[in-house]
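Researcher: Good morning. I'm working through a list of sequences from a screen, and I'd like to move beyond sequence-only analysis. For each chain I'm collecting a predicted structure so we can compare shapes side by side. This is the next one on the list. No need for commentary yet; just the structure.
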Amino acid sequence: LNAQSDTAQAVSPTSFGVVDTVIVVGNDKTKESVILREMTLKTGVEATPEAIEFDRGRIYSIGLFTSVDISFVPFEGKNLLVIDVKERWYIIPLPLFGFRDGDPNKPYYGAGLLHNNFRGLNQTLFGSIVFGYNPSLAFQFSDPWIDRENNLYYSGGLSFSRIRNKSAI
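Model: Good morning. Structure tokens for this chain:
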């Protein structure tokens, strides 16, 4: 038994202890809530090496970070769980070019812009404009967590294109 905050709690032999505080560092753009919602370890929960590795994998799988490190740090009588993340680029320009129907007489070209962490909430925003054969304009948005209670996801888009008639007549 380890004493934690005036009460005795049973802690398994492979446990680091019970988490008193969770601290997130390195998230310049990403909101802390996006990281914390992926975690099973919270204040008052026993931290084990397996639970830490599980949460590290969950945070990394969001796709917003190049590295995720989780440390259990006893400090001044408290057990701190420190999540240290390094964010990846979240705004990515994309060149668009090719040939419609694989025909070199039908070239298209343009550009797109992808924002992978819009508003710091892991939302995705994409826009593109294409010129040449069958010009088009497109906009897409997705939010992986629009309803926290029911874990609902939203994705939608708008597009416009001018398609040339393929009919030989």
